[in-house]
Amino acid sequence: MRGLLAIIIVFFVHVLQAQPVHNPMLQWKAGDRMQQLSSKQLHWTDSPQLHTQFSIVNTQTTASTLLIKTPNVWQVQLSSQSARTGKLQSSVISRNEPVINRTVPHYQPHFLVELQPGDTAQIHIALSAGFSIYQKSPLQVEVLQQDQFEQTDRDRHFWQGMFLGVILVMALYNLFLFFSVKDTSYLHYVLSIAGIGLYFAYYYGFGIEHMWPNSPRWDTWSYTIIVPFTSLARLWFTRTYLNTPVLLPRTNALLTLLNILMSGTLLIGIGTYVLNIDWLAPLVTIIGILNTLILVLMLVAGIDAYNRNYKPALYFITANALLVAGAILFIFREMGLAGDNWFTRYFVQVGVVVQVVLFALGLASRYNQTRQALEEQRLEKERIALETEKEKKQLIEEQKIQLQLQIEAQTLSLRNQNEKLQELNSLKDKLFSVITHDLRNPLATMQSFLKLLTEHHEKLSEAEKQKLMAEAQDSLDHLNRLLFHLLQWSKSQMNLLAFQPEQLDTRESLEKCVRILHLQAHLKKITIETDVDNPCPLHADQQMIDFILRNLLSNAIKFSHMQGHILLKAWVAQQHTYISIQDSGIGISADVVNEILTTHVGATRRGTAKERGTGLGLLISREFIEKHGGQLFIESHPGSGTLMTIAIPLKPKPQGIDTQV
User: Fold this and answer.
1) Same domain as 166, residue 61
2) What is the predicted pLDDT for the residue at 272?
3) pLDDT at 43 (0 to 100)
4) pLDDT digits over 286-341, tens only?
5) Closest by Cα among 199, 293, 209 to 251
6) What is the CA radius of gyration of the chain?
7) What confidence tens digit (pLDDT) does each residue in 480-538 have?
């Protein structure tokens, strides 16, 4: 970068010394280094051609080879006639031919004239504009010695080549940055400085001499295509660098309008080139006006963005200030609105170089910041990756533990299901046992009694007939109870019983149960005593609580001895209604109590008077109690009676009960 700055400083020193000498005259004497003829009568009229003439006198004692530089128009014809010999020489330079075919291979027309000592040459020049753009060319004729021309041309190649080299290097450098950071600001800036480089290559003849030597017509139209393209790139760069769509919406609207206008101008330039339509002069004027507006708007946008606390805008203003000033002067000179001097010719290049260097430094700093940000992002990604890997390992461990817990839970669930299946299988066996044994026995007994009554009716006494009929009635009653219990049990298993709790009176429920079973107790001369608190509310399903009470009281009667005593009690405590039935019967062993409270298999045994049971009553009663959210408690010892107590919540919460039939 230091070497680049040194080259730029040397370039500035050169352009400061490259001011042309203006000394209008119509006669040149050999020995002068350079003179410029600027005749006021040289101006374009309606005629497509322009003529001028002057004389050259060689006052030296030796022959001189001179070069006459003519205006840069489409075609120039120069005639030279020696006053001493009368010899007439004529040559033509046309822009329609490659530069290499000219006598002096230079982008501007130059003619060689040789003068002997003391000789005078009469020079006649005929200019043909050809295209409207050349009517804007300065009508100046310069006479130079050959060594002076060669030195000037070497300086042009060296210094302008150095300038274009700086442009090329910076364009490639920023293009590399674009591919590195993928920031479109770099791409727009590369297009902008590439367009500037192409324009100055065209302006100083590098294009027609080296880049497109066989395309003279393209060289004529290149201004109307290269400059609009460069201006569009400037607009794009301004939008992306200053972020005008967000920060400066109004300025962005103006940039968009200029973008549309300049795009249209570019398309017109391309169209006129393809169709060979000469709209060059008005296009140059329009391009100059639009380009001036763009440069001014760029500077205004930078100032506006800086006033909105956008810090990069200060850098944008500094980098563009000299370029905008120099470019406007250069445009005015090209449009004929300003004179041809050092400031109007070279100040724009000074601004370009300053802008290129400043933007290169700024974008390099931005690139370094971007790299630092990317490095931080990379480190952050690595940190996140490590944390993610750690979290993955932790998650895998947690998943292993969770899976182990799930396996254990599923194993436990399968074990429970297996136990339930075993219980259901036992229940099924019990059901089939009841059906095949308990149902078959009463039916067989009834069949035997009825057969005796029908076949031996005449042989049986009246007492025997009554006994057989009583036995048949007992079998029928037992069968009826068994079928009723089976029906209740099956409905309970299939959730077909509607659970409809309501507010009941405990005393009424117990008295109704006692009335129903009074005959059964009377046959065994058992007394039943009730002790019910007042009041004693009961929140339960009427049918279910009646079944529970009948079953418990019936069991108490069945397993009580003759002339036994049964006590029914009911009270309210701890948000529950308690009902207990205590008998003085044969009692229950601990194993049977545990079986009644924990299994799904009913237990059956005969009562004290050989009464038969179904084995399903207590099982169904327990399920009905659980549906109320209650509990069944049993206290008993063999030979000392049994105390059965149920606890029903005052507002029960049924467990898994479908209250709809």
Assistant:
1) no
2) 95
3) 53
4) 998 898 899 889 889 989 988 988 877 877 888 788 877 887 787 777 666 777 77
5) 293
6) 61
7) 666 666 666 666 655 556 778 888 888 988 888 888 778 778 878 899 999 998 889 99
> CA-to-CA distance for 220 and 44, rounded, in angstroms?
19
Which amino acid, 334?
E
Task: Examine the fold and report which residue of 339, 365, 391 is the final residue of a domain before the chain moves on.
Answer: 365
Instruction: Quickly tell me which residue has 């490590």 as its tokens.
Output: 386
Q: 119 near 81, Cβ under 8 Å? A: no
Work out whether strand 88-94 and strand 110-115 pair parallel, antiparallel, or are unpaired. unpaired
Alpha carbons 361 and 374: distance in angstroms, whole number: 19
Segments forming the whole domain that contains residue 299:
153-365
Cα–Cα distance for residue pair 515/518, rounded to 1 Å = 5
CA distance 428 to 421: 10
267 occurs within a structural domain:
yes
Residue 3 is assigned to a structural domain of this protein: no
- Give alpha helix (H) positions in 248-279: 249-275
Q: Which residues pair with 529 in a beta bridge?
A: 567
Q: How is residue 483 written in tokens?
A: 């079928």
Helix (H) or strand (E) holding 11: helix 2-17
CA distance 334 to 280: 13
CATH of the domain at 64: 2.60.40
Q: 3-state DSSP call for residue 30?
A: strand
pLDDT number for residue 222: 93
pLDDT band at 369 (very low <50, low <70, confident <90, very high): low
Give the total number of structural domains in the chain: 3
| Helices within 571-659 (DSSP H only) | 590-598, 617-627
195 occurs within a structural domain: yes
Q: Is residue 597 part of a domain?
A: yes
- On whether the CB atoms of residues 112 and 103 are closer than 8 A, the answer is yes
* Residue 238 β-bridge partners: none
Amino acid, single-letter form, for residue 336:
G
The backbone region for 315, taken as left when phi is positive above 0, alpha when psi lies in -120 to 50, beta otherwise, is alpha
Q: Which residue has the tokens 């992002």?
A: 377
The tens digit of pLDDT for each residue in 188-210 reads: 888 998 998 999 899 889 999 99
Which conformational region is residue 473 in: left (phi greater than 0), alpha (psi within -120 to 50 degrees), or beta? alpha
The one-letter amino acid at 306: Y
Contacts of 226 (CB under 8 A, 6+ apart): 195, 198, 199, 202
pTM of this structure: 0.52
pLDDT attached to residue 58: 85
User: 139, 170, 193: which is the final residue of a domain?
Assistant: 139
φ and ψ at residue 644, rounded to 5 degrees: -110, 130
